[in-house]
TrEMBL record:
Involved in pre-mRNA splicing as component of the spliceosome. May be part of a spliceosome complex. Residues 1-40 are annotated as: Disordered. This is Pre-mRNA-splicing factor SYF2. The gene is Syf2. GO terms for biological process: mRNA splicing, via spliceosome.
Length: 253
């Protein structure tokens, strides 16, 4: 009887145990499906991020190509000109600030420059524009043109006013009619007259060709050799004077 009751209890416990295992088996496919859906959603999110990053990179590359094409179409020295214009604008603003405070701009600028920088700039300035003397008339005319253009100080405010007043007519083309369309200011005319008078005064001080001296010693064979001898005498005459005198007297060793 005891054995039968024990078997009966085991038989009655089997339905409960089998029900719990079947519920666990039913829960497992749902969990796996949720994990798969979450993983798929994560992959889709990463794919969308990569797609957005690719579009952004494509857009940036296109902008860079456009900018590079613009830079290639600009003149070769555009960057240097742009930097020069920006520096000139900063200098003009600094001058206006100094004038508003009642200070001298040149003095303020010198106070900001160290002695080493001043010496270096002075050496660079001497190397930049050496006076090589007269070679031909074309080179002399080019040097005069460069010297005159360096003296020009454009009035940017006047330029902006003229640009607003004339618009596209300020930039003439081959079809533009320029005669009578521009009237120079009195200040500009006075400045041009003063510059021309200064050039005339300087030209009058030029040394003329020296006349030929019949009593001078002839130690040359042509005019070119005469010029060379004069240069040699100017630089080495004081060192060779005694040797030359000994040769003339015949007492040279």
């Amino acid at each position: 009887a005891a054995a039968l009751s024990a078997l009966g209890s085991l038989g009655s416990g089997d339905p409960d145990g089998g029900g719990s295992s079947s519920s666990e088996d039913e829960a497992r496919p749902g969990t796996a499906a949720a994990a798969a859906a979450q993983k798929r959603e994560e992959r889709l999110r990463k794919f969308r991020e990569l797609h957005m990053m690719r579009n952004e990179a494509r857009k940036l590359n296109h902008q860079e190509v456009v900018e590079e094409d613009k830079r290639l179409k600009l003149p070769a020295n555009w960057e240097a000109k742009k930097a020069r214009l920006e520096w000139e604008l900063k200098v003009e603003e600094k001058k206006k600030e100094c004038a508003a405070r009642g200070e001298d701009y040149e003095r303020v600028k010198l106070l900001e420059i160290s002695a080493e920088d001043a010496e270096r700039w002075e050496r660079k300035k001497k190397r930049k524009n050496p006076d090589l003397g007269f070679s031909d008339y074309a080179a002399a005319q080019l040097r005069q043109y460069q010297r005159l253009t360096r003296q020009i100080k454009p009035d940017l405010e006047q330029y902006e006013r003229l640009k607003e007043q004339y618009g596209e007519a300020l930039y003439p083309t081959s079809d533009s009619l320029l005669h009578g369309t521009h009237v120079p200011s009195k200040e500009g005319v006075d400045r041009m007259v003063a510059d021309l008078e200064k050039q005339i005064d300087k030209r009058e001080k030029y040394s003329r060709r020296r006349p030929y001296n019949d009593d001078a010693d002839i130690d040359y064979i042509n005019e070119r050799n005469a010029k060379f001898n004069k240069k040699a005498e100017r630089f080495y005459g004081k060192y060779t004077a005694e040797i030359k005198q000994n040769l003339e007297r015949g007492t040279a060793v």
